[in-house]
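This protein record is not my work; I was only asked to verify it. Where you disagree with what is written, explain briefly why. This is what I was given:
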Amino acid sequence: MEEKDKPRISRLTAIITQLQSKRIVTAKYLAERHKVSVRTIYRDIRTLEKSGIPIITEEGKGYSIMEGYHLPPVLFTEDEANALITVEQLVIKNKDQSFSENVTSAIEKIKSILRYSQKGNIDLLADRIYFGGNHKGEKSSNNLMQIQSAIIHFQILKIEYRSSEKKRTNRNIEPFAVYSINENFLLIAFCRLRKDFRAFRIDFIETLVPQNERFTPHNMTLQKYFKNYVQ
């Protein structure tokens, strides 16, 4: 293999991974990720199609891989494996039990495909990484996974909420987004009681019950929310 061929082969492999990791990917996104022209991405997609990869083109939207088609997992580089362990140690420090458990489980599955030599190295690295904050490893909530599911399925949540002033209210909310600040997760949601968007600290949610009712997504983005409600 000639040296000049290596960058393209590396890029084609990365494109396959990116197509498998997202529902749909645009040529513009791929071009920006790989610092090439959109025309080059068009040629790459044609090359992958000719090699038997079942790529679906959605006019005006982008590319995806046929549902159910998967290639064997690619090998991780040493830096990528180290980055995963760093992420795991960072997540362990967060205060939501459901989040910690699911990330740890996901990374365990990823570790199973690492090379034998990498497995020893990541165990060593895990013992040498420390993040400050939440020193006792306390968990103050267990709702993040249910909230994330409700966000993507546009599902109403019924919550009992305890405010910072210790006042309790029952609310039906339409979950929109989650963000983290000062080691706490906050849920942005449209509150049907207040008829407006509100931010709820997840660890202040006493009970959370998903409802069968679905809601129509609001014409809102995170950028618009922060501009209109935070400033």
The first helix runs from residue 6 to 21. The longest strand covers residues 168-181. Residues 1-6 have pLDDT under 50 and may be disordered. The CA atoms of residues 159 and 208 lie 5 Å apart.
